[in-house]
Amino acid sequence: MAKHSKLHSVFFNKCPRCGEGDFFIAKSAYNLRNFDKMNRSCPHCGENLVPEPGFYQGALYMSYAFYVAFMLIYFLSYNYFFPEYLDYFLISIIPVLIILTPYFYRLARRAWLAIFIKPLQENV
After folding, report:
1. Domain count, the chain
2. pTM of the entire predicted model
3. What DSSP state is assigned to residue 40?
């Protein structure tokens, strides 16, 4: 994955413009005290990571899409590998979704901002 690509920035907590600076202050989504703390601007290139008030309300839709995609994949794989235990699907997915909430929160915000910011082009 190219260092200055949008996918790199979304999956590796990097600025969508330069691919170098950290998007969130805490490296891990499971640092529960600081999992939602964002840098206001990129420490490397200075890109504004909070363009306007309410900008990240659109990330709610991204988060919803990630949850739906994950639940669909989880259900299909659960149905394929454990069809006789399908009654336990809901019991098993609830803790998994709770555990993944901080990760999906951060992933949705990075993906939402990556839609609107063009990455820097390397000089060739």
Report:
1. 1
2. 0.85
3. S
